[in-house]
Amino acid sequence: MSKVRIGVIGAGSISEMHLKAYAGNPEVELAAICDLNGERAKTKAEAYGAGKVFTDYKQLLADPDIDAVSVCTWNNSHAAISIAALEAGKHVLCEKPLCKTVEEALQVEAAVARSGKTLQIGYVRRYGTNVRVLKKFIDAGELGEIYYAKATCLRRLGNPGGWFSDIERSGGGPLIDLGVHIIDLCWYLMGKPRVKSISGNAYRKLGNQSHIQHLDYYKAADYNEHNTVEDLANALIRFENGASLLVDVSFTLQTKKDEFAVKLYGDKGGVEVEPELTIVTERHDTILNITPQIDHLTFDFERGFQNEIDHFIACCQGREQTISPVQDGVEMMKMLCGIYESAQSGEEIRF
């Protein structure tokens, strides 16, 4: 089968994970890189052997030699670029979140239907070894009915600044940046139930804490101290099947240390997905904590992105159907926007 010719739109930090994974797939030809910053695009193209460089994504999409694209740009451009790519006949891997609003998500969904092309959303944690192993246990009924999940991603100091903290470009703060991953992971493993109601809160109390010294943390390539996003968000999400999900996420919080945990509970067993995969079950009237013997009990970023890209290429070639389709992006935007709407109104949101 011929190689899939890829264009990467957006050459910021997350593009590095895409580029490494494309380079690791023998069925890929990296054809082009596009970025508003031409020098940055050129540097990445030289590093990964891409033959063409663009500063206008529309010119890249007009190139008939390109089969598919990764969209690695600011959140506020995800929908427009994805729709344009689909209309140009390209397959699309769009970084999370799919967009900023439910309305945009529905527009992308319609574009996918019109085009007949694959759009895969970058819910990369679905592709981790620990999740792939766990999914087999869940699909086999080992946990029974999953009725409750908890997801926490708390940074005490971790506002990336730059576009991440500019609500016009990002659409929000830790909820739409970090929360999207852990909410999606729980929702995916719970069987993707439909949302019934959401009660959420969002707080802006600390800002980006740029005055703090002696602690390093990730900063965006365009870092500055401008901040118009929340520090912390939390929510209780209820689903139509009676299950519920409790989530909290932060960029900055007066807490002793960072916290990261994803847990699900069923009537036959439970599981800690993160920070390390542990399955809890019963045998012979005894509770057991089971530790699978696998290479990565926690999410391994490089392996996860490689699995995600490999799956996308298989979908482009017609060998697979994506496990992260546009419909999941629509439902996710309902959840994220519902949390923000509930936080703003102080009321529960019902669907």
Give the spatial strand order of the biggest sheet: 14-13-12-11-7-10-9-8-15
Shape: globular
What share of residues is helical?
A: 25-40%
Q: What structural class do you assign from the helix and strand content? A: alpha/beta
Report the β-strand fraction as a percent range.
25-35%
Spans of at least 5 consecutive residues with low confidence? none
Mean pLDDT: 97
Distance between the termini: 45 Å
The count of helical stretches stands at 10
Reading the helices and strands in chain order gives EHEHEHEHEHEHEHHEEEEEEEHHE
What value does the Rg take, in angstroms? 20 Å
Number of strands: 15
What key attributes describe this structure?
nine-stranded mixed sheet; six-stranded parallel sheet
How are the secondary structure elements laid out?
Layout: E1 4-9, H1 13-23, E2 28-34, H2 38-48, E3 52-54, H3 57-61, E4 68-71, H4 78-87, E5 91-95, H5 102-115, E6 119-122, H6 129-139, E7 146-154, H7 167-170, H8 174-189, E8 195-203, E9 232-239, E10 244-250, E11 259-266, E12 269-274, E13 278-283, E14 286-290, H9 301-316, H10 326-345, E15 349-350
Parallel strand pairs: 1-2, 1-4, 2-3, 4-5, 5-6, 7-10
Antiparallel strand pairs: 7-11, 8-9, 8-15, 9-10, 11-12, 12-13, 13-14
Helix pairs in contact: 1-9, 4-5, 5-10
Molecular structure report:
Helix content is 34%, strand content 25%. The chain is of the alpha/beta class and 351 residues long. Helix 4 (78-87) links the parallel strand 4 and strand 5 (91-95). Helix 4 runs parallel beside helix 5 and helix 5 packs antiparallel against helix 10 (326-345). The radius of gyration is 20 Å and the shape is globular. The model has no long low-confidence stretch (mean pLDDT 97).
